[in-house]
Design goal:
2 domains; 437 residues; alpha+beta; binds magnesium ion; binds adenosine-5'-triphosphate; 27% strand; Rossmann fold; 5-stranded mixed sheet
């Protein structure tokens, strides 16, 4: 993509309304625009990153055997009256009436609707286990939308739901999800720590929040110091290996990490605990028959009984992750995108637009990179080198390739790793080779 043809309305100065670094950089890099409190338009660069995050989420859900669906944003209030949550949910729910004065709402979550879909079509234990997910916009009328896309009112969430015959089966579903979440976040180049979370009236230990540590995080968390150094790459384990899944789950949920101190007293004797701040990027929850009971989502067992299914729900904050990843990965000059979700892999800079030989070398490099399937953002504008470097650092692509007349004379270009800051003076050919590798 040529920067001259790309809609990326960058800002030179820090926007006053942005309190935290991710919000500042997202506005400055022209990724989003606020349209009203907590509601954002996603501009090309921001959308590209969010789509990459959604793609990773989707691939890992599919790999685990979940089926993608797409439920509407607007829901009828009837289902929520059936589950009892229409009155319970409170002011966070945006309530609407249609022209026939029927009560509708903009979905803050989808447990009721998925339960309805399930009970409409599934009646036998033979159809279980089942796992459905979608990636859809949610609306929650948050009392204090803030921090840009991190706590929005309209936000993109992956929410998934599992259906099982027994609690034991639901535990297996939960452990599969657990592994898939570890894989999902590792692929995004971030360390998300699974923390034991409150299960409320349902009890048990089957609720975890996946938290990335950042000073600006809204949650206070408590974790074994071990997590700080630990590599959280998930093992190469098959989803059919039930024993392996359970072992992995146990292994990780011993190393202590929790979102409240109560668990600390209970479980953390003799452990070196670090208190930190974190951003919740995912939340998984087993809730048994909480919805299937009142909504009569039952299946027939092999001896002919009708029993309510055991369910769980599994969220990932897709739009929140865009900000969360920036919180976890930036420096004073701008964003540092992890490779897998970077909007482009290389930023190519023409340092002297008015020099024909230089422009030709840049055009050639651009063509070669594109041919090799490398995603490249080419700063081909008639602008000074200094402002180009600054802009590229802000946008935060993993690699920068700067081509100027001086270097060309000596047969070299400048090749920089955004994360380490390491710069190499190499020939254009070897830079291209390195990138394509
Ligand atoms: P929080 O405690 O941050 O309010 P939650 O527990 O209400 O979140 P869930 O219902 O578990 O959220 O939703 C699943 C995921 O959706 C969360 O883990 C989070 O990443 C994301 N999310 C929730 N609320 C928002 C929001 N207002 N803006 C952006 N993302 C959100
Ligand atoms: Mg939550």
């Amino acid at each position: 993509m040529r920067l001259s043809r790309y809609f990326i309305p960058t800002l030179r100065d820090n926007p006053k309304e942005a309190e935290i670094v991710s919000h500042r950089y997202m506005l400055r890099a022209g990724m989003v625009q606020q349209t009203s409190a907590g509601i954002y338009a996603w501009l090309p660069l921001g959308l590209k990153v969010m789509n990459k995050i959604a793609d990773i989420v989707r691939e890992e859900q599919d790999a685990m055997g979940a089926n993608e669906v797409l439920m509407p944003t607007i829901q009828s209030a009837d289902l929520w009256k059936e589950s009892g949550r229409y009155d319970d949910y409170g002011a966070e729910m945006l309530r609407i009436q249609d022209r026939g004065e029927r009560d509708m709402l903009f979905g803050p979550t989808n447990e009721e609707m998925i339960t309805d879909i399930f009970r409409t079509h599934v009646g036998s234990y033979k159809q279980l286990p089942m796992n459905l997910y979608h990636i859809q916009w949610k609306f929650r009328d948050e009392i204090r939308p803030r921090f840009g896309v991190m706590r929005g009112r309209e936000f993109l969430m992956k929410d998934g739901y599992s259906f099982d015959l027994t609690h034991e089966d639901a535990v297996i579903a939960y452990q599969k999800i657990f592994l898939s979440y570890m894989r999902t976040f590792a692929r995004m180049g971030i360390k998300a720590i699974p923390m034991r979370a409150d299960t409320g009236p349902i009890g048990g230990d089957l609720s975890h929040e996946f938290i990335i540590l950042a000073d600006t995080g809204e949650s206070e968390v408590f974790a074994d110091k071990k997590w700080m150094e630990m590599d959280t790459t998930a093992p190469d384990l098959s989803y059919d290996d039930i024993d392996g899944l359970s072992e992995y789950f146990k292994e990780l949920t011993n190393i202590y990490a929790a979102t409240d101190e109560m668990h600390k007293e209970e479980n953390a004797q003799g452990v070196d605990i670090v208190t930190a701040r974190g951003i919740e990027v995912g939340h998984i929850f087993n809730f048994g028959t909480k919805y299937s009971d009142p909504m009569k989502a039952t299946v027939q067992t092999n001896d002919g009984k009708q029993i309510p299914v055991h369910m769980g729900s599994y969220g990932i904050g897709v739009s929140r992750l865009v900000g969360g990843i920036i919180e976890a990965s930036h420096d004073e000059n701008g964003i540092i995108w992890p490779e897998e979700i970077a909007p482009f892999h290389v930023g190519l800079m023409n340092l002297r637009f008015r020099d024909d030989a230089c422009t030709k070398a840049c055009d050639d490099a651009y063509a070669k990179l594109q041919e090799a399937g490398v995603e490249v953002l080419y700063d081909d504008r008639d602008e000074g080198a200094g402002s180009k470097f600054k802009n590229m650092d802000l946008i935060g692509l993993p690699w920068q390739l700067a081509i100027g007349p001086k270097g060309l004379e000596a047969g070299t270009v400048e090749f920089k790793n955004r994360k380490t800051g390491e710069k190499m003076e190499v020939s254009l050919e070897s830079a291209l080779e390195k990138i394509v590798d």
